[in-house]
Amino acid sequence: MKRKGVEDGESIMGDISKELVEKVVTAREEGRALNIVGGGSKSFFGRTAEGEPLEVAGHSGIISYNPIELVITARCGTTMEEIKQALAEHGQVCPFESPVFAGRATLGGTLACNFSGPARPCLGSIRDAVLGTRLINGKGEEMKFGGQVMKNVAGYDVSRLQAGALGTLGVITEISMKVLPIPAATATVAMEMDVAESIGLMNRVAGQPAPLSGSAWVDGKLYLRFEGAASAVEGAVKKFGGEVMEESSAFWEGVTEQTLDFFQGDAPLWRLSVKSNAPHIDAGGSWLVDWGGAQRWLRGDFDKAELERQASEAGGHLSLFRYGDRSGEVFHTASSVQQRLQKNLKAAFDPDRILNPGRLYSWL
Question: What is the pLDDT of residues 13-54, one digit of tens each?
């Protein structure tokens, strides 16, 4: 069964791929940089954008959706809100639980930024869900990678390479990805404890056979979300205890959409991606811990080099996620080997450096 309106591959919106190709070709010929823009919901991410805007929001619409096969294909400008609504009609969801940012977030931008929500450590990221992509490289060539089935992954996995590339390797025009059924039951328990204790408990729960789908700590409380069969959820709640939240969806939406009080204000927001069981980093400031301890948010003015050192010691890396100075380097300093690989990829996909130059690193 396919979604009504797209049985024959016809989308609800439009296909402007030819127009996008022409703009990329012209920009290359004229030596002009392009700044790829979708819904504009994630313009805060990465370094300060350079170049003339290349608007891709008009390249939108769900191309095909097969609920039985758990696969959906849509154009880059399709909003995540539209995709989630289409899936909900068939009792399905995007497993990576990405933010919709007031309905402005697009599928292409979500993959380019590699954004995922609280379910990330349990159900995977958008990178894990992607089966195939179409894109326009810096030469104006349309390219297709992967397909609509999991076994269609051979050689270089270019589709997943787009996750987190911030449009530096091509203009993503189409994405095929897997989806999952909505869990039969869900429950969230909350318990008061300090951040160090919560990190330990998060890891102990994750190591046991429980239907854990989210664990976060903020403002002195640990929140554990269980989803799955009703009997399994009920058993997990009884086993791990805590106060059952009557209305927990607002909390998890606040974590995903970054609308909790913790995220308010314009103080620099740092993201540390570390080993889930790494000890708490006592750097001061305000913290929110997510992803079972693997993602740690920090608010305040800090020395980037020092935070990088601490993140490295914790087995991970650092980024200045939002606010702060966006003209400097905002991601973890790349090693010489990483820089060489990044530059080689850029040369292969965008030899003239016209697609989002400097958005990821100043030297890319």
Answer: 599 999 999 999 999 999 999 999 999 999 999 999 899 999
- Cα(24)–Cα(22) distance, integer angstroms: 5
For residue 305 the two structure tokens come to: 């080099």
Q: What is the pLDDT of residues 118-162, one digit of tens each?
A: 999 999 999 999 999 999 999 999 999 876 554 444 445 788 899
From 312, 363, 318, 359, select the one nearest 341 (Cα to Cα).
Answer: 363
Q: Which of 36, 110, 93 is nearest to 356 (CA)?
A: 36
Task: Tell the residue number behind the tokens 């292969």, with chain if given.
Answer: 348
Q: Which two tokens stand for residue 283?
A: 């750097």
For CA atoms 68, 70, 73, 76, the dihedral sign is: positive
Is the Cβ–Cβ distance between 166 and 112 less than 8 Å?
yes
C-alpha distances in Å from residue 15, one per residue of 10, 61, 121, 334: 9, 8, 34, 37
Nearest to 66 by CA among 172, 126, 148: 148
* Nearest alpha carbon to residue 17 among 161, 174, 175, 176: 174
Residue with tokens 């300093």: 333
What are the beta bridge partners of residue 196? Answer: none
Question: Of all helices (H) and strands (E), which one includes residue 227?
Answer: strand 221-228
- Paired with 221 in beta bridges are 192, 218
How far apart CA 44 and CA 306 sit, in angstroms, is: 23
Please give the C-alpha separations between residue 82 and each of 15, 41, 92, 117, 362, in angstroms, as whole numbers. 17, 15, 13, 17, 34
CA distance 42 to 37: 9
